Amino acid sequence: MRIGILGGGQLGRMLALAAYPLGYRCTVLDPAADPCAAQVCSHIRGEYDDYQALYQLVLASDVITYEFENVPVATAEWLAERKPVYPPPQALAVGQERLAEKEFFTRLGIPTPQYRPVDSEADFHAALRDLGLPAVLKTRMYGYDGKGQAVLRTPQDCQQAWQRLGGRPLLLEEYVPFERELSVLAVRSRDGQVRIWPLVENQHIDGILHRSLAPAASAEELQERAAEYVCRILDELQYVGVLAVEWFQDGPRLLANEMAPRVHNSGHWTIEGAYTSQFANHLRAITGLPLGSCAMLTKNAVMYNFIGTLPPLSDILATPEASVHVYGKSFRPGRKVGHVTLVATSTEELEEKLPLWDELFARRSVSTTDAQNGLPL
Amino acid sequence: MRIGILGGGQLGRMLALAAYPLGYRCTVLDPAADPCAAQVCSHIRGEYDDYQALYQLVLASDVITYEFENVPVATAEWLAERKPVYPPPQALAVGQERLAEKEFFTRLGIPTPQYRPVDSEADFHAALRDLGLPAVLKTRMYGYDGKGQAVLRTPQDCQQAWQRLGGRPLLLEEYVPFERELSVLAVRSRDGQVRIWPLVENQHIDGILHRSLAPAASAEELQERAAEYVCRILDELQYVGVLAVEWFQDGPRLLANEMAPRVHNSGHWTIEGAYTSQFANHLRAITGLPLGSCAMLTKNAVMYNFIGTLPPLSDILATPEASVHVYGKSFRPGRKVGHVTLVATSTEELEEKLPLWDELFARRSVSTTDAQNGLPL
Asked: What is the ipTM of this complex?
């Protein structure tokens, strides 16, 4: 089976590496000359609206998927007329536009922070009057890793944010004083079978995911709620593949922040920590194979991203329970260049080792409030 | 870091796949036009004594290793004059000649079945008088998967075996009525650190490894003994990389059968079942990185080889705890074309599921005595 992937970053790379044990081969389409996935599989160079390149991908693939959600929906639809495309293009349309996404959640009865569309300065002021300060102003499209967002605490913040972001379709959201950010990853097969990995707690620095803890502590009830919500989304979209949904926890409530119709950074721990990794299960789903178990193999798993640069491997691997994933990307500030996963086979082991791991792999300490919406207040 | 690998079979393929997360790239040298490792990394086509091809490998590599033990020692030595070669060529010399191997074990005080070199028909008769029947006649070189062996129970067997194998350097071994066959995998780093995975119980069909169970049941004392023996071997050879040693268990005794200076089929379960896989630790060792933990992540892991052909993936993966590894090889009787690993997080789970797994993945049941030396009596 030949898998086509739109996007050749680290998610495409890890998909391609997970494809080989299934006997599959991947081809990524990416505009870059040397995207990191191209080191491990075939590469067609082209923009996501270059129909000659897309046609090449159709010829090279039996089934097509994507590793990021900013693929033009028209591209996904054009491909879907020629080869099976999973997840369905409709999921892209929802996942890449924050207003559509929030309205979609609302329509399915899934709680979200309060939000108002902002298409003009007048809308902005009306929305500010409605929601009050603090609030968060976000672009509706092309946001990731905290980009295209501003936290507003003062009238001055509002003015500055409008100068920076105004003129594009925007969204104003209430600022939720959440306890922690969680994410759930789920996978749905072509015949509608659903499996869900345990809820994960995520911590950000400067808007970029820094650390994921699986499973999130004390989350049995939240797990049930997240599972119920995510099943509504999967069924509504007749989804196939892995879906990630990020949540703010506010007491017993889960507020949907955003969803990503693809494998997700907060699921990297599944490579070592779960019976089946998100990459393997995504490939199984889109190729019509039965899904693997999403249960944890270990009691706990912790993933740290390496942002901008990578410590020497000899430093990372001096911790015997560390598994490293180098993405083969050049170093650049703010860029995800690798991650490390550590597993613990008991709660005692986690409690003993987590402070050590944090010291080794945390760039700097991060408090929950700092991480709010990925941006410092 | 660029890794050169002599041999492009499934072991080279899985080494190459384990190399990418470390940020390494591999090149295999293999005489075949399309060895299965070439699907996942670079390939230089050439015989193992083709010095032009070997020179290309030297240029393409920072460090060189091998995935099978029948590489000519002269080749390994020639390469070692040009680039670091691990495991050391001396380990090849010992591992590829059964008499040298047995004498090496004996010199280190490691028990083996009794053996006699056989270089002539007169030697053969003298050895048979010494060791009696049953006995096992083996070629000294190029034996694998039960090839080049004959079990002798009757004078007629002796005559037939001599006709088939006579004229080559041979070895006669006593037939050990062993309880089970075990193997131990260990890894030694460039600075002499040693880590050892749990003992594994192996079962063969027609001389080919069929099923490995990790850890071997009731093996605490045997584990200590095996660890002590394997450390003697590693230290004596100033070994670097993964070493596999196969044992016959005869009551409380471990008798060394053979060693393989490479990653080994009976260690495939480590991909899912251990903190660090044999492939990752082999690469860490030969590139001077710290070794990862060899502890088990799960309570139990079971690996079944697929020989000759592969069931449909949908059948294999209908078992949710199954992880499959397809090698990308064409199907041929007796050829290893893939394997599946299943893990259990408790002894109860193993006891419940093992009969099911056996039914699904065992080609046919195999009794311990049938598996003696990999050959039916």
From this structure: 0.91
